[in-house]
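F.,

This is the one I mentioned.
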């Protein structure tokens, strides 16, 4: 359950490992609230003037990508994410929804931005899923995702999940099981927003 912080609901940020369904579910949650949906990967690519996350990793390196994520996240919270005024009654509010890349919360600069967002009313929801479910999903469609280690996919995901757990746990106001049907996950997140 999301605790009842002093700040009224301003928006919802979805965090979690790649393949957990943040984009799919985020779009459904935005539709439910009749609000906007943004994906930090897309915002970061736009910031760089690039078209592929994988290409950025291969040509410019992970550090450039992480810097772009931080810059795009800062801009988002300063502009699009703050255009909506929070309401004491979340039922009459259309909170913007943001899906954040799996590695962004582990970047100290992005972590600070997310922590600051929580203080002003952004709720952060951690989507989780067993590694085997993530592997199955990513084996079907890896999408525009760059490998971050030399390990096979299952080992890489397990290693990254372990490394990122402390950051995810520190940020999360609530946790939902992303391995369920996206509509079920959407309903769970929408319900959390009213508590």
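My design for it:
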């Amino acid at each position: 359950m999301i605790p009842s912080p002093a700040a009224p609901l301003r928006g919802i940020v979805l965090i979690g490992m790649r393949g957990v369904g943040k984009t799919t579910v985020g779009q459904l949650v935005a539709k439910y609230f009749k609000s906007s949906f943004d994906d930090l990967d897309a915002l970061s690519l736009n910031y760089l003037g690039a078209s592929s996350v994988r290409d950025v990793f291969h040509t410019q390196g992970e550090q450039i990508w992480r810097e772009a994520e931080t810059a795009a996240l800062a801009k988002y919270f300063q502009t699009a994410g703050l255009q909506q005024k929070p309401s004491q009654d979340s039922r009459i509010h259309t909170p913007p929804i943001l899906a954040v890349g799996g590695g962004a919360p582990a970047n100290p600069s992005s972590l600070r931005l997310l922590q600051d967002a929580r203080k002003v009313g952004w709720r952060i929801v951690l989507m989780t899923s067993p590694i085997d479910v993530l592997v199955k999903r990513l084996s079907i469609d890896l999408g525009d995702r760059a490998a971050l280690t030399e390990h096979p996919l299952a080992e890489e995901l397990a290693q990254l999940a372990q490394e990122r757990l402390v950051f995810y746990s520190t940020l999360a106001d609530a946790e939902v099981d992303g391995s369920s049907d996206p509509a079920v996950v959407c309903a769970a997140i929408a319900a959390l927003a009213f508590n």
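The longest strand covers residues 122-128.

Talk soon.
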